[in-house]
Amino acid sequence: MMEERADTVIVSKCMEFRIKPTMEQKVLIWKTFGCCRFVWNHLLDERISYEKMNKGKLLNTTPAHLKKDNPFLSEVDSMALINTQLNLNQSCSLLFAKGKAPRFRAKEKDKRSYTTNWINSNIEIIRIKDDENNIKLPKLGRARIILHRSIPDGWRMKNATIKETASGKFFISLTFDVEIEPKGNIKKFDRIEAFDYSMPSLVVSATGENDITADDIHWYRNLEKRIAKEQRKLSRMKHGSANYWQEKHRIGKLHEKARNRRKDFLHKLSRKVSDSFDAVVVEDINLQHMSQSLNFGKAVYDNGYGMLRNMLLYKLNEQGKVLVKVDRFFPSSKRCSVCHEVNHDLQLSDREWICKSCGTHHYRDRNATKNLLDEGKDILNRWASGDSSLILAPSGVLSEKKLHPQARYNVRQDGE
Description:
Layout: E1 9-20, H1 23-53, H2 66-69, H3 78-96, E2 113-117, E3 124-129, E4 132-137, E5 141-146, E6 156-164, E7 170-180, E8 192-198, E9 202-205, H4 219-235, H5 242-276, E10 279-283, H6 287-291, H7 297-303, H8 305-318, E11 322-326, E12 352-354, E13 361-363, H9 364-384, E14 390-392, E15 397-400, H10 405-415
Helix pairs in contact: 1-3, 4-5, 5-8
């Protein structure tokens, strides 16, 4: 076990690599997926029946008793079945308390992955040549792995998750325990950036250095016609045939292409911003509610703004920097950045407007970034001076303390 020194902490880091198993190994991986689904459904059925008879009590049986009547469960990795049981226990403890129950897993809609733990070097990377490497896995043996990046020395392997994507490719996610020296949060913020969410162009930046144009994004939209064409072909094929699965993989490749382009762009943008600025200000908008209103679903999910915020969060936190979240009720678009007069008549369709108080002409998104930047600076100054109404989460998010809905309503009424 890795020993934690007084001046260090243990954190988990994950690295994903592609693996290329043989046909025999693929069959065993598919069997493991099916066995995990079998264990989930049978244990869930037992827990639901037990919970109805014993309200408030949770049944905690292991997959061992299922192997007596189902010997095929012994053909796959036992740790994969145990991890399925642990995930089910966690889901039941959370949902049973709310009067709900986890869903049973269907073969067609099941997430094709399983997790196995590192025990006594049962998972090991074996280097053969510079461009040829294998990984040893329980039950599977050696499988070829594409090490596109090196694993730093001193990282202790914890577990591995094997998954199959919609395109038919296999990947492995390796989780490591890493000993690092914690960095204290900086107190002096020389450079601050603010982002306002813009559906046509992802974000508009306060400094203008990180403005994104519509040509840079719309990864799914650019492939939407090709995806629709392939899906029409799929609809005319016999379900379960060889041509059906080939077409399914072809569609999965198109979706993966859009997803990989999105992740690559957002990783580069978040790395550039986190290295260049001491703090970043964003608006705490509810993307899920936005996607469900006014037919914005595809546009919101294609932009990946939530992914960008998460990437900024952990990359800033690693450097001791701060992500400032401004309350979603803050009138960033309606407030004049010059005289701070709020234009209550501003509509969503108004992209430009003139302040009735000072006569300043505003572009909606540019004005919002200026207001967010000013509000972010005010929050940082208040936090530096010890304002108790602000909280800095361990993840590196600086925001107002959450109020009870009725208290928030009273504050807004007093403000008006």
